[in-house]
Amino acid sequence: MKLENTDSFARFDDDGAFVEYSSSALLEGVDEGEIGEYTYRRVYVQRPETLVECPHNQRMTYDGDPILETVPDSDPEQKRATLPGVLVAKDGDDLTAAETVTMEQLREERTSLLSETDYVSLVAFEGGTTVSSDMLTYRQALRDLPSTANVFAIVWPTKPE
User: What are phi and psi of 48, to 5 degrees?
Assistant: First the structure.
C-alpha cells in the first residue's frame, strides 16, 4: 500500500471514532495531536501500489471515513488517520475498457507525433544526408511506446531541436 499525505486533519473522539475533517489552515500551524479537548491526526490516503487511475474513464474515491490506526513498526501511541481509496468506473466503464480506450488514444497521438517528424527523414533522404541520432532515438521511442508505456501514466519522449 502507498500512503499519500494530505493537508487535511481528522478529529477523533476519546473512543477513536472519526468526528470531522479540519484543514491545516484552521489549526494555525499545529501539526497534529491534542488541541484543546480534541485529538487531530493528519489524514493519509491509502492507495494500492498497483492502482492506476485513468483520467478518461476512472476516478479515485474513498471508502468511508478515516480510520485511526497505530503506525506499523512504531511506538503504540503513534497514530495516523488512514482513508482507504478505491477505484471506481466513470459512466459504467470498467478498467479494461478504460485501458483499451487509452491505448487507442496513445496510438493516435503517437502517429501524429511521428507524422510531424516524417519530413526530417524525407529531407535527409532527398539531400543524401543522414538523420541525427537524437531524431532517430526520438522516433524509435515513439514507435516503442505502445509496448512499453503504462497507458495511465504516459511519459512522452522529448522531441529534439
Answer: -60, 145
Contact (Cβ atoms closer than 8 angstroms) between residue 42 and residue 5: yes
Count Cβ atoms below 10 Å from residue 118 Cβ, excluding itself. Answer: 10
pLDDT in tens, 41-62: 878 777 655 554 455 445 566 6
Domain annotation covers residue 157: no
Q: At what angle do helices 133-148 and 95-127 cross, to 10 degrees?
A: 160
User: Given CA atoms 127, 128, 130, 136 in this order, what sign does their dihedral have?
Assistant: positive
What span, in angstroms and rounded, lies between the C-alpha atoms of 2 and 142? Answer: 30
> What pTM was computed for the model?
0.43
Domain that holds residue 129: 95-148
